[in-house]
Model the fold of this input.
Amino acid sequence: HPLGLQTILRTYKSYGRKALAVLLDPDKVSQDGLSVLLTQTKQYAVDLFLVGGSLVTDYAHKEVIASIRQHTDIPVVLFPGNPLHIEPSADAILLLSLISGRNPEFLIGQHVIAAPLLKRSGLEILPTGYMLVDSGTQTTVSYISGTTPLPHDKPDVAACTAMAGEMLGLQLLYLDAGSGARWPVPAAMIAAVRAAVDTPIIVGGGINSGEKAYNALKAGADVIVVGNGIEQNPDLLPELSAVIREFNQSVVQA
Ligand code: 1GP
Done:
């Protein structure tokens, strides 16, 4: 997109427009399932596709992106676990610094390795403070990154982490309870982060109902990310779409 996604997300945030990002994990999506989903997206409010995951074994990013391109012009953003996941046919990449953790590899180490590749890729870089939140079970990303998630009942720690990320120049904040989380990111934590920073806030992990989506958006999320829920329940996308449209309807009327 000529404007750039960073500008678009900031603009959305400034007037309260909410967005839905559908996460496609190249390991989990089947070609048939993907075609059905992509055909459906035309009638639903999908703003972005995220492609990736912390552990990808099939390296099918390119094929998944090619399928998305065949069906729709919705922007595709990489959600990488490591520099092997860089795929220039996407539009943009979340350059994640895992600021909830204390593992230098995921704060800066992998970024140094990736930087020349990213520069050549032509991808729009979205510098993102990535905050893992405890979700009642150990998630793959916590295990792979060797980091402890933020305690789910400590919204003040999350708020200070987000503030520090914003002060360091990160442009987006992503609160993630991890894929398939038992508990999504608590509303109180989203609200505390919302009050602490001006950046758009992305929230994901365990959002598997319209009600959970509503709660996250109401608490201050600008973008919600849903992966597993959509893969497992064909009724979820229409439900999420209705929730997003309800929020955005009131924005238009305001
Ligand atoms: C995980 O935030 C994403 O990193 C989405 O999680 O698959 O649980 O929707 P789900």
In short: The CA atoms of residues 203 and 224 lie 5 Å apart. The chain has ten helices and eight strands.
